[in-house]
Amino acid sequence: MKNILACAIAMAGCVAAGSALAQTCTASAGAIPLSGPNSLTTPITNFDTCGVTNQLGAMCSSATTSAATDAIWSVTLGPGAIGGATPPEQNFVISTSSGTYDMYVAIMQGSCADSAPCPREVDSAPAGGTESISIDGLAAGQYFLAVTSFTAGQCGPVTIAVPRLPVSLQNFSVE
What is the pLDDT of residues 10-41, one digit of tens each? Predict the structure, then answer.
């Protein structure tokens, strides 16, 4: 009986360890609707990434882990592929007023998880700089916009200019 109990505890530990390695998250910062009548969404201003938690140990299928906070927004694109407008209309433009915040920005596809693929990611600006990430050519569907850093403890205020998607004609009639 002791052996059965010991095996059951060991198996439960293995299951718990496996679930800890596959972290998932929630859209901690809210939703950005980029379809339908709300497709011309106003910028997100004065959001402080210091007010969120570190949800993912790794991002974009990378083995690199970070203890930095992850501000994550749910983004729904569609219907149809995104295209036709000229940049920067199809870019999220993320800026900060903190000269020490070196942002990393990614668009995760399908799910908010450390194993989710990232069709777009950017970390080209230095600390205090502005990052721009395109949604051009992405198919309709669920995405997550993540603003974080590769450096533990880095966070700060951000402003996000939201893409202005082209409006498509849904119906036309001459009577």
Answer: 333 332 222 234 467 777 776 775 654 444 45
Which residues 6+ apart lie within 8 Å of 53 measured at CB? 28, 69, 70
* All structural domains of the chain: 24-161 (2.60.120)
Backbone phi and psi for residue 106, each to the nearest 5 degrees, phi listed first? -140, 150
Q: What is the pLDDT of residue 169?
A: 47
Cα(153)–Cα(89) distance, integer angstroms: 32
Strand order in the sheet with 91-96: 44-48, 157-161, 91-96, 131-134
The pLDDT of residue 166 is 54
Of 51, 133, 49, nearest to 97 by C-alpha is 49
